[in-house]
């Protein structure tokens, strides 16, 4: 595209007939001297391409991480360090005093004895028949699994309270914690909470429930393929990640033990890094706090945007200065025929706007387009493999795009107008 920049300038110059006189002069001069204007436009374009392409990919990566997390942005989870650790009331009070906490919920996990954990079992007719006994799935089985609806969610992973794990984890919570822990739609919360109060196990995966019951398997050294069955309720819509929930009373009635996993806290705003660091220091080495961040731009993206803006303004300023030197004869002619003093400043404004605006628009189109193409191709490649991971969402940083396309060129134009003398030169006649 950089090679084609002179041709693009020529095409844009064809629109000069509909523009004011000063803009028409600038466009036609730039088209005639495109070999000198093209490098400045290309510099602006390259800076914007890099910044926006990185912004799209970085934003998509952060959004991808968020789609795999059980926690909403701003949530805080306190987990004990060590098998015998516990998050006590003192730790919760410390968190309340240091973070903008809204409400806390204890999260436990059911166990079936020492080194024995509980997991949900799919109904026999819904079990994916491929890749059950090997981590490496042959290509012909991958193709068959992709076409089998029973294998859609097989082997998918998610991040539960800051820890990467397989899907459909089983946890023990109180009924009022459904919305905070699970994140299902608000309209589904009353029914799910009522089911928990009624002693049912609640899930969002219909392949786990048959005839209103769910099977919970035991995995441990002495489990010997044991399992228990319980009354179940399936939510019509999924939550942030796959969950299976029950209450303490239900776990006890099934003969299960429970162990504290930690304490989840919702907040009124996103905790700052300084607040999280102070909390981490106050809790010491016994409790680990985890803060779920959102996909806000980081410092690196801010620095890249600033660098792109500086390059854009600098390139347009240099090109405007060179064009003003080349246009001195035309300015003298305008002065001779009685042009107003503001013409010189309008020429500088138009020249700077053309360089910065054209470079920014082309850079935004190419930068966003290139990043979207890369992510789409990558997602297409993921879709042809099994187990199929979650695709990367395409997140366009529209604020950055607007700043690059509108704000930076306007700043460049204002700078050109501010530092350009409006008085037309008067040539001495002999």
UniProtKB/TrEMBL annotation:
Membrane-topology descriptor: Multi-pass membrane protein
Principal place of residence: membrane
ABC3 transporter permease C-terminal domain sequence ranges: 304-420
Pfam families reported for this sequence: FtsX
Keywords, sorted A to Z: Cell membrane, Membrane, Transmembrane, Transmembrane helix
Cell compartments where the protein resides: Cell membrane
GO CC terms in record: plasma membrane
Protein name, as recorded: FtsX-like permease family protein
Transmembrane segments: 37-57, 301-324, 354-378, 398-419
